[in-house]
Every structure is written in C-alpha cells, then in structure tokens.
Records
---
Amino acid sequence: MKYNFYIISIFFFSLILPAIDATTEDGKKVILHNDGTWKFENPAENAKFNLVEFKGARFESHEKNYAREENPNAHIRAFFQFQNNSDRKIVAIRYKFSLVDPFDEVLYYSIVKDNVIINAGETSKMDTYYYFEDTFQKDDTYDIIIDPVLSNNLRAKVKIMMIVFENGTKVKYN
C-alpha cells in the first residue's frame, strides 16, 4: 500500500507542475508542457511556424542511356514535397536543403527559390526535380551522393526561409 501512495503522489505532483519556459537555438521563446507538447510564446510565431512544412524527398538514380535523347548521362533526380497548412495559395518558397548520409554528414547543400504553386490545405506535386549529372569529374556531386541514393540512405534536411502567397504577402523565417 505504501508503494501505491508514492505512485499516486508522483502522478498528482506531475499534474501540478507548471509549464517550463525555454529558448530555442535561434533565440525564440517556447513553452514546454508536461504532456510533451510545446508552443511558441509569441502567438504570431506559432501561426507562422505551421504555414508550410517539408513532407519528404524522393531520389531516383538513372543509368547512362544513349538511346535517351534528353539526359543520356547517368544522373540522379531529387524530388521535394511541401504541405501548405495555410488558408491561402502559396506561389513560391525559398529554402535551404542539405543532402545528408546515414551519419548525418552533409554531402551537398543549396539555397533554392522554387516557383511552386500549392493550393490552400494541399500538398505539392512531386513533378519537378533537382538534377545531378555524372560529369565524369572526380568527386562531383553525383559521385558524392550516388552510393547513399543506391542504398536508399540519402536524406534531405530542409529549412524554410521564406514563402510567398498569391496576394504577394511574404513570410520570412529566421
């Protein structure tokens, strides 16, 4: 019976603990709740944070094919997908992406201005791609990322920098 008292006491004590104020690496204030959730202290940051999100990336490897008129050399295609969580149409996104190996080492990175149209509440189509061609130069981007692509271990990390809505409104992220 003594143990039940301790368990019940710990349970009730955890319910009355206040939320914890914290600061992110980039200096934004957040509130950490006991249930594992969090939110920005500033409601405007909360709203901005959820407007668009990176959903994932897909990578395709294409072998050299002289019968193919367009892109006969071996190449890799990288497709990125975003979700528009806002109630307005997004017409452009600027973001930084890094291609990382299983050890989280950055193999390649770029800052992109993508004129993509994503209707409110929808996910972008994966119909455009980034192209990395085998240039036959030592340690070109293709050579660096081909092995992780073939082993299905290449990942993309994306940081949204700015979004532009159809009406011209721009939302900048730090």
Note: The first strand starts at residue 20 and ends at 23.
---
Amino acid sequence: VERGRRHAARMISAFVEGVAQSLLPCSWILVVPAVAVALATRHPGVLVAFSGAVVATAWIAVAGWIVPPVWVAGIALLVGGALWWRLGATYVPVVLVGAGAAWAWQPCVGPELGEALTTAQYDPWAALGGLATFLLGALIVGLAVGLAGGALLDRFGKGPSPKVGAGVAMALGSTMVVGVYPTIASTLARWSTTLWA
C-alpha cells in the first residue's frame, strides 16, 4: 500500500511539473503544436492520437532507441503540416506533427522529469509512466488553451482556420530543415533556465 502511495505521489508530482514547465520556453515546441491541434479539431480521438504520438516518440528517443537528427523532426513536421493543409487535422497529420515535435524537444529538466530521463537510460519501461505523466501535464495546458480558444472563436462566429495549425507545423519544420532551430532551441533553453531558476 505504501509503495502504491509513493508511486501515485510521484505521478502527481510529474504531472504538476509538466503543467508548470508548459509555461517555459523550452516546452513551447510541444505546447504550440498542441494549441494548434486543439484549435483545429475537438475530435477526442485526434487529440489522443497527437498526445500519444508525442509520448511514444519522446519515450523512444529518451530510451535511446531512435534519436534522429533534428532535420528528420523537421521533415516529419513539414510532411505532417502539408497533409494537415490538404486533409485537415486528421489522424495521420497530427501524429506526424506530434512525432516531429517530440523529436525536436529539448526539455528543461526538473526533479521528476530528471528521474524519468535517468531511469530511461537503463530501464525504459520503468521510465514510461513518469515521462508520460510529465508530458501529459505539459500537453494538457496546450490542448486546453486551444480548445478554449476555439470555443471562444466559435462563439463570435469566427471559427479558426484549420490551415493556421498546418502553417505553424510547416514553419517549425522549416526552421529545423534549414538548420536554424538549434539556435532557437538554445535561446529558449537559456530563457527557460532564467525563468526556472
């Protein structure tokens, strides 16, 4: 029973840390696409597919199984954005956008995420719960902002253009393909360190 309580407390801490870090610039690569996806669709399955792609891809990367160069993340975002432009925010485009964002993510490491990242080096399965809970904490903020923004726009009769999210994904992907993103990510990480300290 005590072990279960400690585990639950760690998961709650990881979730809260994810929510807190969603406000930091180092998390924007995950949060901005989440806002865009939720602005474009309220379909629960699509929102879950996006979140699942982020969690699965980040987990695979931190476990060291597949760690592609940043330009590959850019290609995933570009292709996902182009498909999103053409087909709307459906399953395949948002999964590609989620995977690209997760591959490009350079986290600010707090205590709970740090524990998950360390554990992933020697036991990826044990790290999955903490990492997933942290990421869901960060993503839920972006998804909530997007859903609230979409509802507000609908209320005033100006639903969001689904192409805006596609444009955001393609713009992010372009910075990665042309090699500008590492400089942007480094600047965001410095800002985050200042804010988190």
Note: DSSP finds nine helices and no strands in the chain.
---
Amino acid sequence: MRQVDFYVHDDCLSQQSVLLLARELQQHCPAWHIAIYPLLEHEANALGFQILPTIVINGNTVAAGVPKKDWLLERMKECERADRQ
C-alpha cells in the first residue's frame, strides 16, 4: 500500500497547514493512504524526529517542514513509477 504519514507537533500552528495539504493530496491521489499523527515532544524524540512536521512516504522520511504540494506530489509519483519498474 502506498502511504504518506505526516508527523506534527500536537496543536502546533503548522498542523492546520498539514491538514490542508493532506486533504489536497488525497484528492489528487485517492489510491494513497494518508495519515496525520500529532505528537508530543517526547513522542517526537522517541521516533528520532528532530524537526516537525516530518513527512514519511512508504516508511522513508522525505521532508521536514511543510513542503509545497507540487513537490510532494512529484515525490509520490516517483514512488509510483518505481513500483511499476
């Protein structure tokens, strides 16, 4: 299954931006499972995330912060192309 996970600080201002980005991605890529995980500081540290938000595609960290939608869509399409090869 193709998956994008967003890890954010719980109640952080960027959480709203991530929610909007996740909704837009789901519209463009309905076959993907997209999840958002609000974390407390100790949870982020336990997972090894130095910066939140962190974006993970299929288990691989691809970005920290809130990237542009087009950039993230391109990473997702790269994963799809790699799956077909």
Note: The first helix runs from residue 14 to 28.
